[in-house]
Amino acid sequence: MKIAANVSTSELLQTCQPLGLEVTGGTKPYTLSIAALDSSVVTNVTMGQNDNLLTYINRAAPNSQFIGRV
């Protein structure tokens, strides 16, 4: 499985800025989990059977980090 994002590790994703993710390989439908490190809230998204692109709007506090998993 391969995951590609529209930002690199050297860029900062600002609050309310979109994060584009493309997932290829593996078995569909894909389920993604995204969590800000300073929050107890986890966002879980199950994509459609034919989907491999997801746009996530960053809701983390400014200057914080978040992690994602497929």
The major sheet is characterized as: 3 strands, antiparallel
Strands of the biggest beta sheet: in what spatial order? 1-2-5
Global shape: globular
* Uncertain stretches: none
Q: What is the H-and-E element order?
A: EEEEEE
What's the total number of strands? 6
Termini, distance in Å?
Answer: 9 Å
Radius of gyration: 12 Å
Structural class: mainly beta
Helix content range: under 10%
What's the number of helices?
Answer: 0
Mean pLDDT: 91
Strand content: 35-45%
How is this structure best summarized?
With 70 residues, this protein is mainly beta. It has no helices and 6 strands.
Task: Give the secondary structure arrangement, pairings included.
Blueprint: E1 2-5, E2 18-24, E3 31-36, E4 42-46, E5 53-57, E6 66-69
Antiparallel strand pairs: 1-2, 2-5, 3-4, 3-6
Notes on the structure:
With 70 residues, this protein is mostly beta strands. The protein has strands at 2-5, 18-24, 31-36, 42-46, 53-57, 66-69. The N and C termini lie close together (9 Å). The model has no long low-confidence stretch (mean pLDDT 91).
Keywords:
70 residues; mainly beta; three-stranded antiparallel beta sheet; 0% helix; globular
